[in-house]
């Protein structure tokens, strides 16, 4: 009877281990799937009143404005970086403020909610530096300690680009004109 009890106890422990392994496997599988989100880029030429979708190959000019809209399908953490033509790395999300303009964008972002970057009633304005602007959007299920500190760590833009891959600049954030439609 002692052997039967020992086998029974061992069988129970083995079942617990198998359940734990199965749970871990399910969690790892879920983590390996990309986070689903809707992503839209909109812009407005400095002479226009309404925003238009930014399409692949579009060219923006100094003084034009743009914003990014995203809507995640699940709670997640969003990190958005820009490298301008001068090679300057700038974190655009999360961001409390930019050059004195408060935007209060923070992580985590919530499923089903639309987020406007820099803000619903504010847009990024392209500076006079012409060249290629590269945006890097990274989405994770958990906070990323390194991405949270990129601007404080003063990682060179070229190193960051090499980590992500490459380059126009944002001059400021300003209020959209009253009556402007997104």
Described by the principal axes of the CA atoms, the overall outline is elongated
Q: Tally the helices: what do you get?
A: 3
Average of the residue pLDDT scores? 80
Helix content: 25-40%
- Tell me the structural class: alpha+beta
Taking the alpha carbons of the first and last residues, their distance comes to: 76 Å
Radius of gyration: 23 Å
Major sheet size, sense and barrel closure:
6 strands, antiparallel
Compressed to H and E, one letter per element, the order equals: HEEEEEEEEEEHHE
Which stretches are low in confidence, meaning pLDDT under 50 for 5 or more residues running?
none
Query: What is the number of beta strands?
Result: 11
Topology, pairings included?
Blueprint: H1 2-32, E1 37-44, E2 52-53, E3 65-72, E4 77-83, E5 89-93, E6 95-98, E7 101-105, E8 115-117, E9 122-126, E10 134-140, H2 145-153, H3 157-164, E11 170-175
Antiparallel strand pairs: 1-2, 1-3, 3-8, 3-9, 4-5, 4-10, 6-7, 9-11
């Amino acid at each position: 009877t002692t052997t039967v009890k020992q086998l029974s106890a061992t069988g129970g422990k083995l079942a617990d281990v198998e359940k734990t392994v199965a749970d871990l496997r399910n969690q790892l599988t879920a983590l390996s799937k990309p986070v689903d989100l809707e992503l839209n880029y909109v812009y407005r030429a400095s002479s226009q009143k309404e925003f238009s979708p930014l399409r692949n190959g579009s060219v923006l000019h100094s003084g034009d404005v743009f914003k990014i809209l995203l809507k995640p399908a699940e709670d997640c953490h969003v990190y958005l970086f820009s490298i301008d033509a001068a090679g300057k790395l700038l974190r655009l999300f999360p961001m409390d403020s930019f050059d004195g303009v408060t935007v209060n964008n923070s992580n985590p972002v919530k499923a089903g909610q639309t987020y406007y970057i820099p803000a619903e009633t504010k847009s990024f304005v392209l500076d006079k530096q012409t060249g290629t602007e590269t945006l890097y959007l990274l989405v994770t299920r958990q906070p990323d300690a390194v991405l949270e500190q990129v601007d404080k760590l003063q990682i060179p833009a070229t190193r960051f680009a090499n980590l992500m891959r490459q380059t126009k600049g944002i001059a400021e954030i300003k209020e959209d004109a009253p009556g402007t439609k997104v």
